[in-house]
Amino acid sequence: MKLPSPRGPLSRVVTDLLISPVSTADAADLTDATRRALARSVDIVVDDDVQLSLYVMYELFYRGFEGVDDDWEWSPELLGARRLIEAALEEHLVERVGVPGDVRPDRASVADALFALTAPTPGPSVARYVARRATLEQLRELLVQRSVYQLKEADPHTWAIPRLVGQPKAALVEIQADEYGGGDPGRMHCELFARTMRGAGLDAEYGTYIEQIPAVTLAGVNVMSWFGLHRRWRGATAGHLAAFEMTSSLPNRLYGDGFRRHGFDSDTTWYFDEHVEADAVHEQIAGRDLAGGLVEQEPELLHDILFGAATCLYMDDLVGAHLLSAWDADVSSLRTP
Question: Of 105, 109, 255, 325, which residue is 20 to 30 A from 214 by alpha carbon distance?
Fold first, then answer.
């Protein structure tokens, strides 16, 4: 993908650095620019400048950018700036994300706590809105918003595989094998999502819509990368994936209904229909064998597992509120329509 346009002083410093080779670039101002950006930030999860900067730093560990030196991936200056943003993000989330208490560190108790945490609620939801009310343009916006993650679906959680052993590792591999199509590239979930985008008349090229993606959506993806890229947060990755899978099956049924309501065929709704069945199985594996199995191996990770799950729900709620508030006001949820 191409480097996105900067959205403020920090992302300008970052993108200006990345267009030069590591060996000739002067990164002396990066730390100060990062500190200034964080000091200015009122709410880090909706700060376009900070979230885009973090997204760009993380993307170097995925597919990188056209014309950007691969050696930037492990640049000490870039990693130092990223660590400052991660510390601020952690402080923000710890203050705002409620973690269930009085959960015993055993498989059954953790699974029960996760299923209780992710139980459907009767309030407003993006899935119900899509099923009943969303316009064709809003359906396309939904796909654009989600493309920033779904076109690399599973990759952030896959970072945890080498950090686990025994049953939790096997459980994660089982889930991810399905996400990657069981060896069939045409059935990879990211490819199924690309089919849905093309069926809706959108460009499914990776990174095409990065300029339109608002900070809050970037923040949800950044949280996954933050957890996945740190061994310290392996428990949070397990909890995040469990919550992700546990809140997938029913919403995807409703998303599929919304697309069918507008006349889209089964090839376009395949992505949603696949997740209705697959994630009903994945939620059990993720809750009991991955998260539950991990806490039995390492009881000290109990809080991190629950924090990861609660953070997943918190970020999903923020993105959902952003979408619904825009659509209810009959305006675009994107930075530029």
Answer: 255
